[in-house]
Amino acid sequence: MPGSLATGLDPRSVARGGQSPDRAWRWAARLLAVSVLVPLAVILGSWLHFDAEIWQHLGSTILPTLAANTAWLIVGVAIGSLLLGVPLAWLTAMCEFPGRRFLDWALMLPFALPAYVLAFVFVGVFDFSGPVQGGIRSLFGLPPAWSFEVRNTFGVVAVMTLVLYPYVYMLARVSFLGQGQSAYEAGRSLGLGPWAAFVRVSLPMARPGIIAGLSLALMEALADFGAVSVFNYDTFTTAIYKSWFGFFDLQSAAQLASILLTLVLVALVIERRFRDRARFVETGRGGRRRIPLSGGSALAAAVFGWGVLFAAFVAPVAQLLSWAWETRASLDARYFGLFVHTLSLGVMAGLLTVVAAFVLAYANRYHGDRSTAFSVRVGTLGYALPGSVLAVGVMLSLTWIDNRVADGLEWLTGRDVGLFLSGTVIALLMAYFARFLAVAYGPVESGLERIRPSVRDAARSLGAGQWETVWRVYLPMLRPGLLTALLLVLVDVMKEMPATLLLRPFGWDTLAVRIYELTSEGEWERAALPAVALLLVGLVPVILLVRRSAR
Amino acid sequence: MIRFLVSAAIAVSVALPAQVLADEVVVYSARNEHLIKPLFDRYTQQTGVEISYITDKEGPLLQRLKAEGKRTPADMLITVDAGNLWHAAESGVLASVDSPVLDANVPANLRDPQKRWFGLSERARTIVYSSERVTPADLSTYEDLADPKWQGRLCLRTSKKVYNQSLVATLIARHGEARAEEIVRGWVANLATAPFSNDTKTMEAVAAGQCDVAIVNTYYFGRLQKKDPSIGLALFWPNQDSSGVHINVSGAGITQHAKHRDAAVKLLEWLSSDEAQHDFAGLNMEYPVNPTVEPAELVAAWGTFKADELNVAEAGRLQADAIRLMDRAGYR
Questions:
Q1: Is residue B299 over pLDDT 60?
Q2: How far is A340 from chain B, CA to nearest CA, in Å?
Q3: B21 interfacial to chain A (CB closer than 8 Å)
């Protein structure tokens, strides 16, 4: 291995100062984990009751197909988002080619597009009755029955990849930016070719970021219901929703969801095992000179970047805009309220979640014991559950607490005071927090892993206190990771649908709620207007934050 | 100090619910906002009664009602499909309502026999065909679409949609499971392509020539027709010599723990009245349940038909059986 990689360091061993800061950090981490664990426990509690009949039915009819479909989806999205996300991140972070400055942030834009919206546009354009197949038939004089199928595994994987590659792109990009040029150049000077230096030096160093991005993409693919249902592509979530909405059996639905959760947990633990064998830390900023591409390679890089941007963003947004234009008359004063609610929920949840993610990651790296590692694992599981299932978990636990408190007050005062938590913004923020802590944790943790532990020693030996070290050393160094985390959560919250629907206070409609209202009765074209509005709100933070994080 | 804080906290929390307006109705609705808000606004204007509502899918709303228990703020639950209404009633969140007005306005087969919910609009799930490639004489019944003569010519929406579950549930009620499964298997064998995610896409496939017949709700057809009056599709009313066209409802009930029960009952009665029915159905191009109210012009132009008189609650009771049956038959 090249000498610039420091391996086998345990950052905890360098910080065994006082016991009290350790304890404070650990308790903070535990507390955060508990607030995610409670709704998860409600889901896991479903196993107390077992309905063998539904399981037998699902097992003998649809489960085998669902399992196969889900496996294909995961494999396909993993391959697809790695093939798009990693090379694009490398090109925009390390190289220079025409259009690089624009693509750098523009390639994150597809993330602002909800998966189900892209799915609908895709099916609308490419299916038998859409303009593409119709155009081909009339252009080449083909028989009216000529067609190709797009509502299949390939179509689902293509759509999900185009929506989810930004997770990999963004996190890999932060890793590459953090590496600077020096590691790559050291590799080159030791006689490696450009390709070998990328594969053997830069790529392994960026692995925590890439894996973190990939885990988020796959968790979202696993838990997705909206996009797959546009394709009528049955995955594991189909069985969950069938049990709940079809058989009205939330217990079985929760049991199925907890199987999903277990699978994700196992995968994460395995990944962690592998990652623990090698630790990579940043070697200092080093040179910031980009690798200039010229001629054919510059053209190839530009075509690749623009091609992805076109397929994942420009084309679908053009279609959305044309639909939105047709329904522009429905744009009224109420949209102002929708904007405000969407943005303020996003900002509140984003800040809350990123602070929590930092506490969790920092505690685990420098003050952790086994309980902290466990807290991290629990705290980041919420994302693996389908949104509605987690939302119900949060709702059930909050109303339970509410009812007990109200019982107590009634006993004390003789008056029924009603529910005060459920139906407030607090309930909604709890749900966002439980769901998106994993999203914030990924970039923060992978950023933290690249800071060498000696930085902390240096700060401490220069007399900086506990908080000063965090505030003046870590937060500035972590800025790209923190900003990425904030951006991801902000946009994810604004797109979020099931929890917002179930837990929003009266009158707190968001743009996503508006989209739901229209799409649930199949009025997709009319939903284009709120979808475009959502996109615009999502663009503001993307542009602001990305410009800052790119130095 | 501590005692002061505690008593202050209690005082505040006791005072808060006092803000609940006397003239207010709180609604949980699975029917979309743009189909209920215009009516609510009119009601508020006429009576001064404020209506607050949230919308969501039936499943989560029902779960919330159950979890909130006796402290729920909701007075009324509006939902779509008899299966969902039946299930809400079964799970005990709806209270029975004795109202001569509702009894008069809502026909008996469109409301719960125990009066826990009442249909407010009626939708027909019928056959739509390509007016270019099919003559109506070829069509007869839902059952007939299982005949091999339709091989490769049928398009269906996914079995995950409750409308299809209710349709198959009525097939079970009428023919028994074995025969119903035979019919569904016949449909699946006749499919031209994999089932679609919604009715509109299904009809567009018929219009584009991917298939010749489909089963859809009439209001989706109305929407397409409004957009493109020359679209090469037409409606057919099946089973006119036997059971009649399959119908379903959207409807509402008063919650078990309603805080404004009287006001909520009044609102429900108003929604079933001559005055509200035209719009309640018309906004979505459905049929009014109130027999004295005419449907909208475009809807009336599709003609009259004999409707299935089976109580729609039956579809709810048999929904789970219908899903199992469709899973067995490979109907996705």
A1: yes
A2: 18
A3: no
- Residue B326: closest CA among chain A residues belongs to which residue? A61
Rounded Cα distance between B196 and B158, Å, is 6
Chain B residues close to A61, C-beta within 8 Å? 324, 327-328
Beta strands B76-80; B246-255: pairing state: antiparallel
Alpha-carbon dihedral angle through residues B276, B277, B282, B288, given to the nearest 10 degrees: 180
DSSP state of B306: P
Question: Using the beta-carbon criterion (under 8 Å), do A413 and B10 form an inter-chain contact?
Answer: yes
Q: Which residue has better confidence, A204 or B190?
A: B190
Confidence of residue B12 (pLDDT cuts 50, 70, 90): very low
Give the CA radius of gyration of chain B: 22
Report the percentage of chain A scoring pLDDT > 90.
45
User: What tokens does A488 get?
Assistant: 């991801």
- Tokens at A115, concatenated: 């998966």
Would you state the pLDDT for residue A188?
Answer: 87
Predicted confidence band of residue A469 (pLDDT cuts 50, 70, 90): confident
Residue A48 binned pLDDT confidence (cut-offs 50, 70, 90): confident
Phi-psi region of B122 (alpha: psi -120 to 50; beta: other; left: phi over 0): beta
What is the rounded average pLDDT for all residues in chain A? 87
Instruction: Give me the residue from B33, B158, B208 closest to A517, CB to CB.
Output: B33
CB contact under 8 A, B59 and A244: yes
As a whole number of angstroms, the distance between CA A415 and CA A433 comes to: 33
CA distance to partner chain A, nearest, from residue B135 (Å) = 19
Contact (CB, 8 A) for B245 and B305: yes
Residue A275 exposure: Cα atoms within 13 Å on the Cβ side: 19
Q: Answer whether B71 sits within 8 Å of A418, measured CB to CB.
A: yes
In degrees and rounded to multiples of 5, residue A263 shows phi and psi of -60, -45
**Residues B174, B271 contacting (CB under 8 angstroms):** no
- Bridge partners, B25 (sequence order): B51
* pLDDT for the residue A353: 97
Q: How far apart are CA A170 and CA A159, in angstroms?
A: 18
Cα of A122 vs its chain's centroid, Å: 22
pLDDT higher than threshold 90 for residue A440? yes
Q: Which residues contact B1 (CB under 8 A, 6 or more apart)?
A: none
Q: B168 with B156: CB under 8 angstroms?
A: no
**pLDDT of B223 higher than 50:** yes
Q: What is the ipTM of this complex?
A: 0.88
> Do the Cβ atoms of B197 and A521 come within 8 Å?
no
The answer to whether the CB of B9 falls within 8 A of the CB of B56 is no
Q: Is B210 on the interface with A (CB under 8 A)?
A: yes
Q: What is the pLDDT of residue A492?
A: 92
Question: What local confidence, expressed as pLDDT, does residue A548 receive?
Answer: 65
Rounded Cα gap, residues A79 and A2, in angstroms: 28
Q: Which residues, at least 6 apart from B162, have a Cβ–Cβ distance to it below 8 Å?
A: A245, A246, B80, B81, B83, B84, B319
Quick: pLDDT tens for A330-379: 888 889 999 999 999 999 999 999 999 999 999 998 888 888 988 998 88
User: Do A15 and A362 meet the contact criterion of CB atoms below 8 Å apart?
Assistant: no
Interface test with chain B among A151, A225, A245, A334, by most B beta carbons within 10 Å: A245
pTM: 0.90
CB atoms near residue A257 (< 10 Å): 30
CB contact under 8 Å between B193 and A250, yes or no, is no
pLDDT given for residue A53 in this prediction:
86
Q: With 0-12 CB in 10 A as exposed, 13-18 as middle and 19+ as buried, what is A4?
A: buried
* Mean pLDDT of the region B164-180: 97
